[in-house]
Every structure is written in structure tokens, then in C-alpha cells.
Amino acid sequence: MNRTLDLRRTLALGIAAVALSACASESKTSPNAASPERQAESEYDLSRDAFYKGHFREALDHAQRANTLDDQNAKALYFTAVIYLGFCSSEGMASPDCRLKDAEELARKAIKVEDRFRDARNLLGQILILEQRYSDAMVVLEPLTKDPAYSANYLAWGNYGWAQVKAGKLDEGIVSLRNSITEPRFCTGDFRLGMAYEQKGDFVAAEKSFTDAVEVPSADCQALQDAWYERAKVRQKLGNTADAMGDFARCREISIKTDTGKECARLAGKAPPTPIRPLTAPGAPAGNAPQSQASAGSTSTP
After folding, report:
1. Closest CA to 134 of 168, 185, 99
2. Residue 28 carries which DSSP code?
3. Would you give the end-to-end CA distance of the chain in angstroms?
């Protein structure tokens, strides 16, 4: 289950970064552009629309057409890589459509076309983590953490720190993950920091980080199923059985279709779920997580 968990969290960042790159990257299309380029841009837009509606197969078809029409469209190349990760998350690592090698190749092509495509570099680092190539991931991600032009560098810190943790460099990873949560609503960073503390045996710090993750005022963050599951396990280790059962029950309420949800349902018994905090006070505007924060199932659009 650990690799599936890694994938969900990695995909969360990959999907989220699409919103930044899709909005920030300047379109190559101009009134005088060649017809194939215009068609490729249209196919890319159709792919993005289908993807955010959860229609991965349709999204892949449009993205592949875009790449055939214009193999220099960096956004489409990048987005196709994200779609492959979507299949990995929704259908599992054994799915024939979960093609990490293809995703890696597409991310590298996007970078070759547009060298300063920072989100593509970040995505490449994420893919390398999923491929368990942690040293390679760190080489790709470290420069992004120091790049002042990368406005979402907390994403890079989050992935760089996670690669360090997965490589067994817990102390260094904790430092990097702390840098990622300088964006206070970045709940994926809090979650990963909790995982690092849990591996280190600091269960008090782990419980706090998992709590920080699920208490971010965002529906996506409150639905981080693995954070509820991990907090429940930590609370059991701390002897707080009643609250642990509530967390297992909250995890169960999010979904019983996932492996994590099934395990939570088994462990929760008949315990009532831990209450979640209202996202807004009465009469207050909704508080949104940053544009680049999303859960694996997010359908937010740029």
C-alpha cells in the first residue's frame, strides 16, 4: 500500500501544477500559426477539459492527437504525462495505461522544448520518485528549490524532501519538508512531514503534522484519507485509542473503495467519525487552498 500512497500524493501535486503551467505558459498559437499548431492547441484544451471531468481515456486521446499534430507543444507533452499518472492512481500500478516510462519521456521532451518549464521539471522529479530513483529525483528537484523564479517552489521542496525521506535521509528530508510548509495551506507537505516524523519514531510531532494536514480549511485537505489513517495509527502508538478509532472512522467515511479505506473500515468498528471543522465561519467567504494544492481526485480547472 505504501507505493500506492506515494502515488496518490505525488499525483496530487502533479495534477495541481497543471493549473499553474496551463495558465502561466504563453500559448504558441498566433493568428498566423500553421493549421496543425492551431489544431494541436485545440486538442490540448479538449484534453484538459476531459481530464478535469475525470474522463482520462478521452483526455489521453486528445493529448496524443495534440502531440502528433505538434510535437513542440510543451504544455501538451507535459499534460500527457500527467494523464498517465492519472491512470496509475485510478486503476493501479498494474494497469496497462499506468506507463511511468512514457510519462518520464514526455516530461523530458517538454523540458527539451521549453527549458524553463519549471512545472515539467517538478513533474519529472515526481515521476522519478515513483520509479524509486530517489537520487535522480533529488538531482532534478534541488535546483528548483533554489530557483527564485519558481513561484510554487514549495512544490519542489515537498518533492525534494519526500525523495530524501524515501532515500533514508530522514533529517535532511524533514528540513526540506519544513520549507515546503512555509505555504501554510500546503497539506501534502504536512502529510509527508508527518510520515517522516513517524518513520523517525517521533510520534508526537507526527500527530501534529497529520493534524495540520487535515485541518487546512480546504475540502481537499480534509479528504486526505491517508492522513487520517496515519494519524489514527500514531494515536494508537501514543495510547489514545478512542481518538484513533474516530480517525479510522473518518477515513472510512471518505471512501471504502480504496485499500486504505477498506483497512480503516476494518479497524474502525462502530466508532463514530472524528468531526471535521467547518470550512468557513457563518457569513464568511470560503477559504480556498492555494491553486497548486489539490487532492488526487481534484477536478479544479485553471
Report:
1. 168
2. -
3. 31
pTM for this entry: 0.83
Residue 43 grid cell: 486538442
User: What are the tens digits of pLDDT across the range 169-180?
Assistant: 999 999 999 999
CATH number at 1-26+35-147: 1.25.40.10
Sequential DSSP letters for 80-122: HHHHHHHHHHHH-TTSTT--HHHHHHHHHHHHHH-TT-HHHHH
* CATH code linked to domain 181-276: 1.25.40.10
DSSP 260: H
For residues 172-201, one letter each, b for 16 or more C-beta atoms within 10 angstroms of the residue's C-beta and e for the rest, the string is bbbebbebbbebebbbbbbbbbbbbbbeee
pLDDT at 67 over 50: yes
Long-range Cβ contacts of 205-208 (<8 Å, 24+ apart): 206/230, 206/231, 206/234, 207/231, 207/234, 207/235, 207/238
Q: Is the pLDDT of residue 188 over 90?
A: yes
pLDDT tens digits for 199-215?
999 999 999 999 999 99
Q: Are 254 and 223 in contact (CB under 8 A)?
A: yes
| Residue (of 152, 165, 200) closest to 5 by Cα position | 165
What SS3 class is residue 281? coil
Looking at 181-240, list the stretches that DSSP marks H as alpha helix, in order from N- to C-terminal side.
Answer: 187-200, 203-214, 219-222, 225-237
Residues written for the chain? 302
Looking at residue 280, its amino acid is T
Distance CA 90, CA 98 (A): 9
Sign of CA dihedral 289, 208, 137, 6: negative
Residue range(s) of every CATH 1.25.40.10 domain in the chain? 1-26+35-147, 181-276
